[in-house]
Amino acid sequence: MSDEEVPVLIVGGSLVGLTTAMLLGHHGVASLSAERHAGTAIHPRAGHFQLGTTELLRQLGLEERVREKSLETYSATGGIIAVESLAGRELATYVKELNEGVEGFSPTVRVFINQDALEPLLRERALELGATLRNRAEAVALEQDDEGVTVTLRDLDSGDERDVRARYVVAADGNRSPMRGRLGIGMLGHKELSRSITIYFRADCAELLRDRNQGVIYVHNPELRGFFRLDRTGGTGFLVINTVGADVTEDSAIDVQSGLTEERAFQYLRTAIGTDMPMEIVDVANWRAEATCAERLREGRVFLVGDAAHVVPPNGGFGGNMGVQDARNLAWKLAAVVKGEAGPALLDTYEAERLPLCVQNVQQAYTRYATRVVPERGVEGVEPAIPDIELEIGLVMRSPAIASEEPDDGLLHQHPSASAGRPGTRAPHVVLANGRSTLDLFGSQFVVLRPAGDGVDDWAPPGAVSHVIDAEPFAEAYGLSPGGATLVRPDSVIAWRSRGPAAREEIARALAKALALDSNGARQAAGGGPT
Ligand SMILES: Cc1cc2nc3c(=O)[nH]c(=O)nc-3n(C[C@H](O)[C@H](O)[C@H](O)COP(=O)(O)OP(=O)(O)OC[C@H]3O[C@@H](n4cnc5c(N)ncnc54)[C@H](O)[C@@H]3O)c2cc1C
Questions:
Q1: Percent of the chain residues past pLDDT 90, beyond the cut
Q2: How far is the CA of 381 from the centre of ligand 1 (A)?
Q3: Which residue CA neighbors atom 4 of ligand 1 most closely?
Q4: Strand blocks (E) in 322-389
Q5: Residues 381, 315: Cα–Cα separation, whole Å
Q6: Helix boundaries (H) for 161-299
Q7: How confident is the model at residue 528 (pLDDT cuts 50, 70, 90)?
Q8: pLDDT-based confidence at 444, cuts 50/70/90?
Q9: What is the mean pLDDT of residues 182-205?
Q10: What does pTM read for this prediction?
Q11: Of all atoms in ligand 1, which is nearest to the CA of residue 137?
Q12: Nearest residue by C-alpha to atom 20 in ligand 1
């Protein structure tokens, strides 16, 4: 007998666990998150949040709160450059301005906000949406059978243990993921790029920043490679160091941790700043840069999300953002299955849709590490860089729940102006007559969209809502002719479209397929695991 029952248990209550909790609450499903720490993140870590993430935060009613919080620390228009040192020469510009090229493709913008400032907002919203969050609770055992999963949670204050029974478990327990270890799921890729450190410090660098209003500043000099993230005052921030020494092809260059003394940490900081000045080291964190992806994202009723599923170097800001998209893909599917609205086979599509994209993003993070931090090591085995916007809102997914159009070109990414309403991609942003975005119509349920015109059939099958859109560019942006229709999922992904006139039965069949129901509404059993 278990002590407690819940539809979904989330192990880990940091960035991705909290996002999953918010989303399940948003979709009306109860969840319990167990987090062994007493509170949310204590270090800034993630800072660069991509369009996929900010669009989701907008749908969850957090856009304004996050933007205001971001402006307390960062400018809205920072970029990414490389310097010899803050006082020294500028070497390269990787991103001129954070939101360059974004306008017209999204109703929102990328933001810089530190993870320790963001997480309390996610936590607050998850609670507003009905999630249960339990801190100082560590998952210490897991067993699953055909009906559900039993997880033993230890109260880290009292030492008491209790069993929680859940239909499904989401493992959001970070890069060392004890859950992944228990399930025996291996990681593939580049296992140790460097034993890096992050020095959190205070020093008045405002003068050295001059008019450089930068979000991320890479440092390249004969003593070290890494990057700064400084707040807008230039007085506080952190320095990541990935390699030390002039010859980064030497193995010893990638071990920044061994033999690190306080004196040496100050020396690194002085070198990266490029001049001596009063400075205070607040903390030093050791971490391993790697570029790896789990070989599977699911074992039975347990799903891996976030750093439990993939670990990347911070270059390009992929780690947390990828995890948020895992949660976005999975949460509505779990909710639909738990509520009996979808067949359990829908849960098989999480891995089918996300794994190829996760592998691609891991490779892209590796590309940015290789080209920005250790270019001397060469480009053998390094994939060419894909433009950020394609990795954020131009990804192409495939699964039995998506009616991909034939012939399939096999692309995994495309510029949003080229994908133009293609099934498997994020639905395009079009400004509506009321000034809102098409993206504001999605997030909670399936939506049928049709271009306005004579005799248009404003109809959606039960379980979906319908909108007729008369904004001028809509039909072209979605690739529809008069009478056509498109079906958009709660995660804003296009499940199906009919370019030309679509009959009601056809739309009903498309919805059934997108929910893994057979054409008369029966739920399809899962192929890969228990239902
Ligand atoms: C210097 C640096 C800069 C970065 N910059 C960016 C960036 O700009 N953009 C970006 O997107 N990402 C960035 N990242 C990566 C980002 O921080 C991570 O990808 C993100 O934190 C992953 O979130 P998560 O919730 O999956 O895992 P984590 O944040 O690691 O959280 C896992 C949680 O699970 C808990 N836990 C573990 N085991 C158990 C258990 N058995 N029981 C209960 N709880 C458990 C842990 O206590 C922890 O709180 C950066 C990382 C670093 C180090």
A1: 84
A2: 27
A3: 46
A4: none
A5: 17
A6: 178-183, 206-209, 262-273
A7: very low
A8: very high
A9: 95
A10: 0.96
A11: 43
A12: 320
pLDDT tier at 41 (50, 70, 90 boundaries)?
A: confident
- Among 75, 79, 70, 55, which residue's Cα sits nearest to residue 115? 70
Ligand 1 atom nearest 287 alpha carbon:
53
Q: At what angle do helices 319-338 and 15-26 cross, to 10 degrees?
A: 30
- Is residue 530 pLDDT above 60, yes or no? no
* Residue with CA closest to ligand 1 atom 29: 14
Q: Which atom of ligand 1 is nearest to the CA of 41?
A: 49
pLDDT classification of 469: cutoffs 50, 70, 90: very high
Mean pLDDT, residues 262-279 taken together: 96
CA 211 to ligand 1 center in whole angstroms? 32
Q: Which residues line ligand 1 (CB under 6 A)?
A: 11-12, 14-17, 34-37, 45-48, 115, 138-139, 172-175, 178, 198, 240, 287, 306-307, 314, 317-321, 323
- Tell the residue nearest (CA) to atom 41 of ligand 1: 139
| Confidence label for 437 from pLDDT (cuts 50, 70 and 90) | very high
User: Which residue type, as a one-letter code, is found at position 381?
Assistant: G
Ligand 1 centroid distance, CA of 391 (Å): 20
DSSP for 21-54, please give it: HHHHHHTT--EEEEESSSSS-SS----EE-HHHH
Residues 274, 267: contact at Cβ < 8 Å?
A: no
276-335 tens-digit pLDDT: 999 999 999 999 999 999 999 999 999 999 999 999 999 989 999 999 999 999 999 999
Distance 495 CA to ligand 1 centre (A): 31
Mean pLDDT over the full length of the chain: 94
pLDDT of residue 467: 96
Q: Are 34 and 154 in contact (CB under 8 A)?
A: no
pLDDT at 14: 97
| Alpha carbon of 65 to ligand 1 centroid (Å) | 21
pLDDT of the residue at 213: 67
- For a substitution probing ligand 1, which of 35, 304, 315 has the most ligand atoms within 8 Å of its CB? 35
For residue 159, with 0-12 CB atoms within 10 Å meaning exposed, 13-18 middle and 19 or more buried, which class applies? exposed
Tell how far the Cα of 275 is from the centroid of ligand 1, in angstroms: 33
According to DSSP, residue 409 is labeled: -
Q: What is the pLDDT of residues 115-136, one digit of tens each?
A: 999 999 999 999 999 999 999 9
Classified as helix, coil or strand, 479 is coil
Which of 22, 45, 179, 193 for mutating ligand 1's site (highest number of atoms within 8 Å of CB)? 45
Contacts of 86 (CB under 8 A, 6+ apart): 205, 208, 209, 217, 219, 228, 272, 273, 274, 275
Q: Are 511 and 462 in contact (CB under 8 A)?
A: no
Cα-based distances in Å from 448 to 445, 461, 489, 522: 10, 9, 9, 21
- Nearest CA to 52 among 306, 328, 297? 328
